[in-house]
Amino acid sequence: MASLKDIRRRIGSVKSIQQVTKAMKMVAAAKLRRAQNNMLNARPYARRVRQVLASLLPQIDRELLPVLQVRGQIDRSLIVVVTSDRGMAAGFNSTIIKEARTMLDELGRDNVDLLCIGKKGRDYFTRRDHAVAASYVDFWSELSFNHAMELGRDIVSRYVNGSVDQVWVVFNQFVNVLRQEIKRERLLPLVVPEGEALDTSEVLFEPSMEAVVDSLVPRHLNIQVWRYLLESFASEQAARMTAMENATTNAGEVIEMLQLKYNNARQAGITKEILDIVGGAEALRTE
What is the pLDDT of residues 209-227, one digit of tens each? Predict the structure, then answer.
């Protein structure tokens, strides 16, 4: 049976851990509020640009822009895997990595390049000897639209120069604090579902429809990448906040269990001392 000193030491250790998890939960909650606001502000714009393009693309020649051209045969694919730099976020990273591995198996590992956003994804695939074409890390704390533009340029350049024939993005989409959904979206070639198209039959385009598309396509790609980053960052903070809240609750339960164990051990010690005293007094009286 553990001594009272050992139990007190364990209680102190668990309390220290509980303070850390509680602080991490508060930090994640503060970051989540900001990330959620940015994400909710970006969603309507991204959706409207996508709808406008859905209505215009069928009406123009796709040879207008290299990024609009659809390859007749898919020989090589690029998967953009969006993870975090840090752990302690429950299954946030593991589910993304699992989905990316599923896509690797579907598309063929030898026919896929990986572009990893976040240390967790990069480190996972690097340790397993899967070539990572590029990685972007250590920017989440200073996340800005410039990061999305830099990433967008890298992705588009790989598609335009023929290095890859299609681009998929695997990321966590924020639903609410307790729920994040794994999403895989094809970013390139740019094929927007017709169901999202707007009615532009009575719209006049100046200077021309082609000029409008030429201006919207880069905006669309950048805002989509920006949305992926915002959704992932908000999902990460929500997952970490939930995980730290659960850890704090579990630490409280462990403290209660250890405190009960400490009280029982202390009571047993006191009872033993009383019995020793009573036994000694009884022995003196019989003499």
Answer: 788 888 888 888 999 999 9
